[in-house]
Amino acid sequence: MVEHAISAKGLRKRYGETQAVDGVTFDVAQGEFYGILGPNGAGKTTTLELVEGLREPDEGTARLLGSPSWPRDRTLLRRIGVQLQASAFFEKLTAREQIRTFASLYGVPADRADAMLDTVGLVDKAGTREDKLSGGQAQRLSIACALVHDPELVFLDEPTTGLDPQARRNLWDLLRQINAEGRTVVLTTHYMDEAETLCDRVAIMDHGRVLRAGPPRELVEELGCDSLEDVFLQLTGREYRE
Amino acid sequence: MTPFLSLSAAMTKGLLRDRAAVFFMLVFPLMFLVLLGALLKDSGLSQSEIVQVGDVKVLDDIPAKERAELRDVLRIEKTDGSAAARKEALEKVRKGDTDAAVYQRPGGRVELRYSAADQVRAGNVQGVLDSIVQQANQKATGRPPAFQLRTSTLQDQSTKPIQFLTPGLLGWAVAMSGVFGSAFNLVNWRKKRILRRLWLAPIGAGSVVGARVGVNLALAFAQTGIFLAVATLPYYGLKLTGHWWLCLPLIACGTLAFMSIGLLVGAWAKSEEAANGLAQLIVLPMAFLSGAFFPLDDAPGWVRTVSGFLPLKHLVQAMEDVLSRGEGWGAALPAMGGLLLFAAVLTLIASKLFRWDAA
Ligand SMILES: Nc1ncnc2c1ncn2[C@@H]1O[C@H](COP(=O)(O)OP(=O)(O)OP(=O)(O)O)[C@@H](O)[C@H]1O
Ligand SMILES: [Mg+2]
């Protein structure tokens, strides 16, 4: 049996009154491009955090590349790259200093960090402090920091939120490219077109549960819809979420 | 670069680029030393100044050697013996520009005029002149003195203000940077989610904690270097005693103790503002109660009881001992042990309160 990149079983996480994740089970194959969709508050970020090993699940287990992600395992962490939904930067450091610092945490040399900055089109902003970057620039830096050590498995939480169309297309190309190199990519997104073009399979979540999972085209066919967006609305309803 | 070094570099840059932090940790305490040091510079001296109007035999006859010894306690300014000069001298005494005026009446009587405004100075001048006259009288008898009282003012170094200002203010500076440094770092990194991001990087907790401690130690040693450099300037005149370098391990242990207070503050506080307020609320009273700004010798008993529990008090006291009183390991070791114990206990409590998230 080929080892799964991700194998999550029965994950549950409760915050006080909120059951953020309520029994999530899914597998992601090596080299797969996997998308997690769902309305605000569906539990996507929490699911990713449990899978990444950032939080301890109340119940269930997650194995990444064959090793459990909880408790913390430094050899495993070296092989995964994570972009958190809200970017996390060192205070008062410039873009270049940020990515070089992150690179050195993974034992990656500075020139590789600079090259990554070029890849996400931030060379012009290399000397700009973290708090002076625009929202989209910060987002790109955060993605660059997640990819700087060539991880085998990449988690991106809403990577394209706040990006302009050019940056979005650039990021798509970059993600397709690293996926083509055999790396596994998991992302969450609110853009259905993005999920349709990028993902081999998507899981649609709501209320902490996976409602449906499969290749976008199959889901569209199965439910007799026109697009993934219709599938999404049909599964999760049309009312507002807070 | 190793994670330890790059994290240290990131922290150092973050610190140095924060102007307010640099001001409060480095410049502000130094300002206190420079100003208080200058203000209190002469307050511990007992040297008196007198104006000698015209010839006064007992004073003029003092042998050169004795005169040199006398100079520490008494400075004599001699003017001509005219009536105008006498009037001027008395005016000076009245205004407090000099401590006393002395002149000789025909017939050998020595007149001393002093102002009663400063009792201590008046007493000093009187005492010194009296002893000079007595000695002269005794010499005039041509017989060796039957009894001799050798007096010399004991210029106790530790009573010179700079000798207690330096360890006190340095202790306060180190306490500020220790408490604020670790509290701010913790709160800020939690708020900026860097703590979580570091959790996902393949590094040990040792690199993170070690980097923070390293940066704080470097900062504390820099503070020590600057403080000692300023205080030993001839203008301030701090005299370092033999074991002064023992202040370095003391500072290191103190830094750990203060960082543990900062950890506790940072673990509790949800925002930087809260951390700032709480840290101020701890550091400033602690500094007062620890004798960082003025000695606690005259403080009421309860103050001294409270201060016995404060790490800064023990740091300041031990630093005074090694910097100004010539004491050695005997004074430093118990303080170091106490500071480390304090640090261990508070770190343990802080680790129980520790939270990854701001929520
Ligand atoms: N640290 C936390 N403490 C308490 N409740 C939380 C915490 N994180 C998330 N929640 C709650 O858990 C639920 C799921 O949140 P989560 O962030 O996983 O949603 P999401 O699907 O990522 O939403 P979005 O699309 O807005 O990013 C929400 O109701 C949220 O309020
Ligand atoms: Mg989310």
UniProtKB/TrEMBL annotation, chain B:
The keyword Transmembrane helix applies. It is a multi-pass membrane protein. It is found in: Membrane. Keywords: Membrane, Transmembrane, Transmembrane helix. It holds the Pfam family ABC2_membrane_3. It comes from the Bacteria. The keyword Ion transport does not apply. GO terms for cellular component: membrane. Residues 126-357 form the ABC transmembrane type-2 domain. The chain crosses the membrane at residues 20-40, 169-187, 199-222, 242-265, 277-296, 329-350. Its main location: membrane. GO terms for molecular function: ABC-type transporter activity. This is ABC transporter permease. It comes from Streptomyces boncukensis.
